[in-house]
Amino acid sequence: xxxxxxxxxxxxxxxxxxxxxxxxxxxxxxxxxxxxxxxxxxxxxxxxxxxxxxxxxxxxxxxxxxxxxxxxxxxxxxxxxxxxxxxxxxxxxxxxxxxxxxxxxxxxxxxxxxxxxxxxxxxxxxxxxxxxxxxxxxxxxxxxxxxxxxxxxxxxxxxxxxxx
Length: 164
Fold this sequence. Notes:
With about 160 residues, the protein is an alpha+beta fold. It has a domain at about 95-160: SH3 type barrels, CATH 2.30.30. The chain contains 1 helix and 7 strands, in the order αβββββββ. The strands form 2 sheets. Strands 6-5-4-1-7 form a 5-stranded antiparallel sheet, with no helix packed on it. Strand 5 (about 140-145) and strand 6 form a beta hairpin. The chain starts with a helix and ends with a strand.
């Protein structure tokens, strides 16, 4: 009788250990699955990542003199493909460069009004150009630095850039 009671207690104890272990394992498995970040969705209006460009080093005729006519000058000439990069567009008067400081980004609207149509958005720490401010300083008309998006955002959510 004592032996049977001992077998019963050991059996219950082992069953509790196995069930606890299985529960903890299942909980850890599902917690790991739920904490993994999903893939970022790609929408049609998202910016395309800039493709890397490969630049060739220009060769000069001083290094490689393959000119069969030795009387002509060996001054290197600049080909049309080696033109200097265009300078950035000058800012309109009163405009300045800024960065978005709102952590969730900003909604760009077509008018300076909360009920105006949404025309896009700008992300956190994105570089923009502030073109003008409303008379009450509650709205700013902006242009996205790399793109053609232009519209109105709530004022006070940008920080003027210190460098030109």
